[in-house]
Amino acid sequence: MANVKPRILKGFRDYLPDNMLPKQRMLDTVARTFESFGFAPLVTPALEYADILVGKYGDEGDKLLYRFLDNGDRDVALRYDLTVPLARVIGMNPQLAKPFKRYQIAPVWRAEKPGRGRFREFVQCDVDIVGSDDLMADAECLAVGAAVLRALGVDDFVLRVNNRKLLTALLARLGIAEGKPAMAVLRSVDKLPKIGEAAVRALLVSENGLGSAAVDGIFDFLKLDPAELASWFADSEVGLQGAAELNALLGLATELGVRDRVEVDLSIARGLDYYTGTIYETFLTAAESLGSVMSGGRYDDLLGMFGGQSTPAVGISLGVDRLFAGLLELGLVQEDGNPTRVLVTVFDASTRAASYAIAADLRAAGVPCEVYLGAPRMKKQFQYADRRGVAHVIIAGPDEVARGEVTIKRLATGEQLTVARDAVASHLR
Amino acid sequence: MANVKPRILKGFRDYLPDNMLPKQRMLDTVARTFESFGFAPLVTPALEYADILVGKYGDEGDKLLYRFLDNGDRDVALRYDLTVPLARVIGMNPQLAKPFKRYQIAPVWRAEKPGRGRFREFVQCDVDIVGSDDLMADAECLAVGAAVLRALGVDDFVLRVNNRKLLTALLARLGIAEGKPAMAVLRSVDKLPKIGEAAVRALLVSENGLGSAAVDGIFDFLKLDPAELASWFADSEVGLQGAAELNALLGLATELGVRDRVEVDLSIARGLDYYTGTIYETFLTAAESLGSVMSGGRYDDLLGMFGGQSTPAVGISLGVDRLFAGLLELGLVQEDGNPTRVLVTVFDASTRAASYAIAADLRAAGVPCEVYLGAPRMKKQFQYADRRGVAHVIIAGPDEVARGEVTIKRLATGEQLTVARDAVASHLR
Q: Fewest beta carbons within 10 Å, which of A30, A124, A239, B427?
């Protein structure tokens, strides 16, 4: 075997245990919360036929696909997101009962220029309700988003909502053509929280070619109260529909007990052009600069892309790395790669079986623990425990074993406590 | 968007919720068990530089790599297993404290000819102890394997163990050259449980070109009792070492309380040529025809492949799909894609908030539940519950709400029970 230098592709990362253990626990909590609302896991392959993916993400997206010919000369690509594979599954499985409530937590691949916080492989975490056009489904996404954050210990957050139909009506009124020009205007508006009103006004003129009346119209709209929307859009069917949906969603948020965490923000446009109704973003109040940690909306036209009947859908996508960064910043998690807080030492071969038995009892009592692999001097075992961030070491030397006792040593203070052999689990719990 | 027929690549699968929900729960139990012994999760990228992987799996393996040039003309490949990426991580991170105990549960890709139970993407589940040459590490793998199976509800299983050094000594004594000829003989011996002694004897003559004395020597060896090994190998240093290790491992298995589940099987050779000591396979007694559900061993020379110092390691790999098939066969899990057993119905818009509140209380009490999305006639909601395999529906109509009560209906029998609003969770738990 040639001696190859070990290295990793640019834009890719290893997640070592220090980072991955708390992140995995976060994802487990997220999944359990999704399941408590009736969402179930779906897994799809990393590789798809290229024509399943191509043309779904715009010209830019197509260029970012990891696309190649496989050993059988099939034109294949790594998945770019979890939504198009979901659409494929829906298209291939008409037998699935609707509403189909699924979540998927899996990596996606995009050949982007790597940069600060931008990677070529990253985990997406999507939860979607497929096959219901009821606004209760939109509201359930708010509720499950709030439940996820609360389950992770975050209480200060805001779910910002808007409705895409309002933006459609606004742009139509201002005479901005649908499609690319409209999308470009929405992208400019979307920058409002980052660059402020003056800069967005300038962009709308310089980049989007709007006149000052249109720019004023946009900012008049952005300052509306939800209750004013219906009269503002009195002449627009789609505008009235958007206003009715947004106000109904706020009513449902009240019924769901999350109204105090929901704010209307008419500037939210979302980058993707497939949203058709409700759109959401979510910010941690104490770490707002991270940006939205959870976004999504209703996309009633997308899942029909594979020729089946049109299938309404609504969902949210959690920014795994961003949310984890937020939890770290808020002190709600910390990097730590050791799942145990207890090391059972091994005095010598004669007491090893006793150490194994103590460890088995601890695990049976729900206390994860490690047994030292070997039996060197105690000092060396304590050093190992210290390096692993272990809080307590268990000592069962020949004297302790003979007396049916165990010594628990707290590493931080050096305190020792000798207890009866069968009381050790309750002492540590 | 062109109208593309939705389809999936041959050799790849979607895991729909019916299958994925119980499988995910199995994997969660596996991960929690690993953690209870101090193993922590590691995640590595799907893509690696091709030269990291090429040459590690033999000529056959190299041909099965999904290898391509990425958009930057880098020669890359999808990972083929989790062991070589582990070796890369060890090579790149000398700061990691040893023993490094990690697990990884992740898909791997091999462009094999798809067949019954053989896929081009499948999940591997590996647990390894890196940096300890102590036999306690080998024994810990037995213990964690037994603990995993017990945590999954399997009590009848057998951990078959052998030691690669014994096979090395045997082949040397019979004058079979190391490398490919020795590996070919081991592969023939490995077929013993599948094709029986007579067929293996025939293979050893026809395929491996052995004389009848050598064939007899192999079968004399296979019938030895572990206690006889030392005298049989009295003239072989490596044979004596293998005998000592195997007998010491059996002693540790006794101390660990798993000796009754451990059997010596001198015919176990394992296909891979990188094992250097202990080797394991694991069979479910009541579903033995599935083959080994968990295999592995000690591989002390492999992790140094990236030029670092030699790093001893021992581990086991769980056959996720095979083990899941075993659990299904034993009736320990069943296919079921609904994480909830309770549907909270919605009588009409006036009682919707009450239904939401009941659902929130149930979830807070640890009872997953779904709220019907909409408020059609009860009959339709019951039909949905039935199709979803829900056991209980909750009814909170205007009368119930006015009286502070809730009706629990058991779908299978039609039984109904009306209880106080705040007693509903305790009734369902």
A: B427
